[in-house]
Amino acid sequence: MSSEPDPNASRAGSWGAAFLTTFTTVFLAELGDKTQLAALLLSAQSGRPVVVFVGASLALISSSLVGVLLGRWLAKVMPPQQLERLAGILMVALGLWLGRQAVLGLVPSPSDLPLS
Question: Which residue has the higher pLDDT, 23 or 32?
Answer without folding.
Answer: 23
